[in-house]
Amino acid sequence: MGVRPPQQDGSDADHIEFGIAALEPHLDDRIDYPATAEEVVQAVGDVQVSYDASGGTVALSEVLEKTPKRRFESKRDLLDALHPVFEEYRAAASNSLVGRLRGLLPF
């Protein structure tokens, strides 16, 4: 997923990537599929991945622990398994008091 940040100066700002869109660049050509969750973390490292537009992050190993799958047949299979977990993190953050306050601020 990705969203554009608020535009204040009229210039074309880059979009902010989070969830599987933020993770995908770390996965390119680094993993031989099929791969286990442990092999994925070994190949790319335990990177911090943004799960919302406010900058919240979570470790890849933590997201993988919450997936019901332990083995992924392809990159698409991995991303499909991780997507609902990132959505849970995003929803939990937006429901928190801090998340709601961040949503009200223009920056």
From TrEMBL:
Domain of life (superkingdom): Archaea
Protein name: DUF2795 domain-containing protein
Species, as recorded: Salinigranum rubrum
